[in-house]
Recover the amino acids of this structure.
């Protein structure tokens, strides 16, 4: 049976998690590939916020290269955003082994 202290701690963690989720909606990471040819900004909600393409990367003769750069930038942005979320969740839970939170 949970005592009051444990219940209070669980309620505090729940409030902190809700605040973290709200904060992550506005936090972003930026990933750039091809020496800055394509840059992607991804939010903590795993939403691509923007894609910037250097005009020099737009070559009608090599559309596949541009597609590859965009794909690589989006994947890198999503990876960085996931790492940010995992890091923030880990800091909040203090290393607790709670399935689904870390």
């Amino acid at each position: 049976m949970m005592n009051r202290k444990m219940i209070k701690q669980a309620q505090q963690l729940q409030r902190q998690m809700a605040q973290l989720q709200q904060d992550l909606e506005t936090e972003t990471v930026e990933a750039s590939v091809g020496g800055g040819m394509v840059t992607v900004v991804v939010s903590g909600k795993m939403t691509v916020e923007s894609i910037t393409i250097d005009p020099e990367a737009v070559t009608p003769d090599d559309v596949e290269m541009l597609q590859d750069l965009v794909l690589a930038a989006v994947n890198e942005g999503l990876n960085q955003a996931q790492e940010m979320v995992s890091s923030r969740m880990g800091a909040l839970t203090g290393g607790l082994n709670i399935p689904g939170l870390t």
Q: What stands out?
A: The chain has two helices and three strands. The mean pLDDT is 86. The radius of gyration is 19 Å. Helices lie at 4-26, 63-93.
